[in-house]
Write a structure and sequence with these properties.
The chain is of the alpha+beta class. It has one helix and four strands; from the N terminus they run αββββ. Belongs to the bacterial ribosomal protein bL32 family.
Length: 59
Amino acid sequence: MAVPKRKTSKSKKNMRRAANSKYVAVGIINCPQCHEPKLPHRVCKSCGFYKNKEVVETK
């Protein structure tokens, strides 16, 4: 069975674990219908449009 020859240092351990935490924040775009800020690939909360079609009826 394979056994490590030396103890993994705190630095190497943390460098390995840091690769999983490199996430990029989601960009906010403007709705093409009402020009309000919204998350991409989601229905606009203010006008209810998604891909130029009204999906949710708003007041």
